[in-house]
Design a protein that fits this description.
This protein has one helix and nine strands, in the order αβββββββββ. A hairpin with a 4-residue loop joins strand 5 (71-75) and strand 6. The longest helix has 25 residues, at 2-26. The protein is globular. The strands form three sheets. The chain has a four-stranded mixed sheet, with no helix packed on it. Strands 3-9-8 form a three-stranded mixed sheet, with no helix packed on it. A two-stranded antiparallel sheet has the order 5-6. It starts with a helix and ends with a strand. It is α/β, with parallel strands linked by helices. It has one helix at 2-26; strands at residues 36-43, 46-48, 51-55, 60-66, 71-75, 80-84, 89-94, 100-105, 118-124. It binds copper (II) ion. Residues 45, 71, 106, 108, 114, 117 line the site of copper (II) ion.
Length: 125
């Protein structure tokens, strides 16, 4: 009898798992916490990659790492700004809710060169 209960429980759990798995597969936007992570490195005076293509309506996490010194990351179109400090990982969430090409740039102006440090987010349908 105990075994029957255990088997029934497994079947129910399996069905729930399949249902939620299917729902996740069927929805375009993943639930929070499972978003795609895009890694970006910053060094004087460039970002790699310098162009990032995102899909409209699919939020992502940008994970920024500085390779040589402190930098910044500013993407005004989507209200995003972060300090990218040497030795730390900066994480920002971007919700690309409209299409187009949008510039991001470094806004740490200590020392020359940062003002030319920029890249582009390209949001496509
Ligand atoms: Cu910089």
């Amino acid at each position: 009898m105990k075994r029957m209960v255990a088997v029934a429980a497994l079947v129910v759990l399996g069905a729930i798992g399949m249902a939620t798995g299917w729902r996740r597969f069927a929805t375009a936007a993943p639930p929070p916490g499972t978003e795609q992570v895009v890694h970006i490195t910053a060094k004087r005076f460039e970002y790699t990659p310098s162009e990032i293509t995102l899909k409209k309506g699919v939020p992502v996490i940008l994970e920024l790492t500085a390779l040589d010194r402190d930098h910044g990351f500013k993407l005004p179109e989507f209200g995003v700004r972060a300090d990218v400090k040497l030795g730390e990982v900066a994480r920002v969430r971007v919700v690309p809710d409209h299409t187009g090409r949008f510039e991001f740039r470094c806004d740490v102006f200590r020392g020359d060169g940062h003002e030319d440090m920029a890249g582009e987010i390209v949001v496509v349908d």
